[in-house]
Amino acid sequence: MQLIKSIKEKINFIKSNPFYGNNIKKSQIPKEYNVSNLWRVELSQFWRLLYTIKGDQIEIICFVLDIIDHQTYDKKFRYEKK
Fold first, then answer.
1. Segments of 1-82 assigned E as strands
2. pTM
């Protein structure tokens, strides 16, 4: 329930400000997403919400691409444990 509440809260933040999340460097975007921009928002319990922004000067649309746990996020973005 806490994770669902966190997702809803962050989606509302993104609706208010599409640039709310952390922008991921283009060189780090996994090819599987096939997007030119990717944003990350931290959720409760170390989960991550990944989204992209599409649009023009009139309309901005955000698409949630993935909601993944921290361990999967680290693997997908090739972060190593120290």
1. 22-24, 38-42, 47-55, 60-69
2. 0.89
